[in-house]
Amino acid sequence: YSLETYVESRFTCWSYEPFSGQKLDSPNEGKAPGPWEVELRPREMFVDQDKELIVPHTSTVTPCHHCNAKGKTVCHKCRGKKLTRCGDCGGHGHKTVAQGAVLRKVDCGECDGQGKRRCPLCSGSGEETCTTCSGHQQLVFAVKLKCEWRGKNADYIEERTDLPDELVRDVTGKVIFEEEGELLTPISNFPISPVNRASKSLIGAHENSLKGQRVLRQRHNLRGIPVTEVHYEHEGRQGVFFVYGFENKLFAQGLPSGSCCSLL
Ligand SMILES: [Zn+2]
Ligand SMILES: [Zn+2]
Ligand SMILES: [Zn+2]
Ligand SMILES: [Zn+2]
Q1: Complex ipTM value
Q2: Which end of the chain has fewer CB atoms within 10 angstroms, the N or the C?
């Protein structure tokens, strides 16, 4: 028996971008919807995915907090001093040059012997454009809604032989029952009652694990996997092996796990 619950979570946070005169969807345009009132659907059911959007009617303009609405901040290279150390002379203002065999100190031509040059980043203004508002001095704040869709899986295996139960999970069997809907009711009329109990408890566990999320859709199915237990005697030794799944996979105790072969 396997159950899949497709769960939707929604989160909101503030987002901002520079205000450059773009058209605003402000609260004056209408009442902002709550996070669960916004229409947002996954592209395809039972596929994990995320989506984001700006909630309608939540955009407001505020002064930029990073530059105090000046549009500019202090240049981070020269820290507002407008000058940086000359890279050519290392800030000494002079260089040592060889004239024949004689070494002479001469003024650095790049900085005229000052050891400092105009800051190349701010061109000597000591300021740079604010990176938060891109120089626009104002920001548009709006509520961003993030939606996450995730599939949660659970299963129950009813298996009474000594075959390790998890082996039947990955093989093909006959689909006995299949159902999909918004919220499922547990299976209750299957002749093997542990299966009915498992259906009830797995569906209940998925419901109880929701934390402010909602179930979008559920599906469950019941598969019958053939398992044949074979006892053999070979050269006086007794043994047992199992054949399981429509693929006729073979399992024998003592074989290293993963070395399953198929019966031809
Ligand atoms: Zn220099
Ligand atoms: Zn600078
Ligand atoms: Zn700014
Ligand atoms: Zn078993």
Answers
A1: 0.68
A2: C
Give the ligand at the shortest distance from the Cα of 123.
2
Residues 194 and 97 both lie in one domain: no
85 CA distance to ligand 1 middle (Å): 8
Q: Do residues 263 and 243 touch, judged by C-beta distance below 8 A?
A: yes
Question: Of 10, 13, 56, 14, nearest to 33 (Cα)?
Answer: 56
CATH classification of the domain holding 114: 2.10.230
How many other C-beta atoms are found inside a 10 Å radius of the C-beta of residue 29?
12
Q: Are residues 44 and 94 in the same domain?
A: no
Find the 202 Cα to ligand 4 centroid distance in Å: 20
Domain identity same for 41 and 143:
yes
Query: Which residue range is the domain that position 97 belongs to?
Result: 72-129
- The predicted model gives 21-49 an average pLDDT of 94
- Give 188-202 pLDDT, tens digit per residue: 999 999 999 999 999
Read off the pLDDT band of 133 (50, 70, 90). very high
Among all ligands shown, which has an atom nearest to the Cα of 122?
2
In a domain, residue 180? The reply is: yes
Give Cβ neighbours of residue 170 (< 8 Å, ≥ 6 apart): none
Ligand 3 centre from 123 Cα, in Å? 20
